[in-house]
Amino acid sequence: QVELVQSGGGLVQAGDSLILSCAFSGRTFASYAMGWFRQAPGKEREFVGAIRWTDATAYYADSVKGRFTISRDNAKNLVYLRMNNLEPEDTAVYYCAADRSGVGSQIKSKYDYWGQGTQVIVSS
User: Fold this and answer.
1) What are the tens digits of pLDDT across the range 100-119?
2) Which residue among 43, 67, 90, 114 is least packed, with the fewest CB closer than 10 Å?
């Protein structure tokens, strides 16, 4: 069974940077695509970005493109979400997710495992 444990998050000011981490255990991490999603109060959980296992190619939602970066360390079974130039609209609970197909997707249902979520609050 795969377990995803997230760390990072907190309260920051607009313009600040923050790094979220997601530790993967239970299977061969390198074969999974990893995604990041977020859910703001009263809203649906939305796609932030994902990184494939094959070539570590990452892709992002338009709302975060150019500000957020996803990376992975297959040796340490970790995936990171670096968030720069944060805006109040980025306030949400952030979730990492694992897709055993290795492809990744913008669709929540394509992911097999989820982290516990971590709160990010960006004050103006």
Assistant:
1) 998 899 999 999 999 999 99
2) 43
pLDDT value of position 5? 98
Map tokens 């932030």 to a residue: 48
Asked whether the beta carbons of 94 and 34 are under 8 A apart, the reply is: no
**Closest by alpha carbon to 116, among 41, 20, 51?**
20
- Helix, coil or strand: residue 89: helix
**What is the spatial distance between Cα 26 and Cα 9, in angstroms, rounded to a whole number?**
24
Tokens read off for 44: 């649906």
Q: 39 pairs with which residues across the strands? A: 93
Residues 6+ apart with CB under 8 A from 17: 82, 83, 84, 85, 86
User: For residues 18 and 86, is the Cβ–Cβ distance under 8 A?
Assistant: yes
